[in-house]
């Protein structure tokens, strides 16, 4: 007999309410969305056969790809021409086989081109010296903002060179002042966005962030940083609607994927996660704020050697809701959860809805170990939602996990 279904139902965490009315399929989770994230909705109009794209090569704008260089202005010049081109479609090309040095840079829309492809085939390197960021007060390395019908791909690598940030983090070096590190790749206010086939590694803090965006497809990303690197979330989604994240391999020092307030109709499938802190909804409600997340489906994920599995994190004093959250077909190997002192290893869980009275601040997992004897009783594991009524050290870790 295969793994037993796990049991999750109405969860109340402080003033937050998790509402799971039934085991939702992918279709059910997105049934209320007229145009949820599908392969057809954002990408097909400009990916179908048509006119050959006008290609703008950063090398033609003076990019040198030398170790002590600065290719930022060349990239900006190439982006401006690609974005403002009357040709359709338009391609912004970073050639393969070269390593380019980029200072913090923002690629802005709206673009005149009806669609634009950022073809990143080479390697992009961030400054390794923290003073570059601290002197300018910047918190993002590569930003795409206000661009419609943007397709970012190419098989290239973004290297955040975050070692100096990690070594000077207050989580690693306690006497140090806590400073928010930059995000490697940030998408803000983008619509009909596709991001695929890239490696993002060793970010200063979060690797990929999506905010205030709509109709987003993310797939085939390889995101990696050491397991001890602090605050290095893999993919962070906030205030965004109709987001699909699929077939990504993520190993970092924080959440592999975090879905935070303002996000709805999010599908996460086929994720390999570990090391890291698992896949999280939240944190929600920091500083007594109102927060909401709804219609999230996490399915067919494998978590290996993570500190947590799948979870919802809240702050005491916050208010709002997390509703229609579904976790199903989650495989866990050597997963631990120190906060609840429950060790979890080699289990496979799915989610079903049922009444669970008195489940305050806990998610109940009702499942069997993946390789267990079906005659054995099911393991019932209580996982604390991350409300910050514990020690100050716990509060700090929960804010940034």
UniProtKB/TrEMBL annotation:
Gene Ontology molecular-function annotations: polygalacturonase activity
Coiled-coil ranges from the UniProt annotation: none
InterPro entries: Glyco_hydro_28 (IPR000743), PbH1 (IPR006626), Pectin_lyas_fold (IPR012334), Pectin_lyase_fold/virulence (IPR011050)
Record region (Disordered): 31-50
One protein family per Pfam: Glyco_hydro_28
Keywords noted in UniProt: Cell wall, Cell wall biogenesis/degradation, Glycosidase, Hydrolase, Secreted, Signal
Protein name as annotated: Polygalacturonase
The organism of origin for this protein: Eleusine coracana subsp. coracana
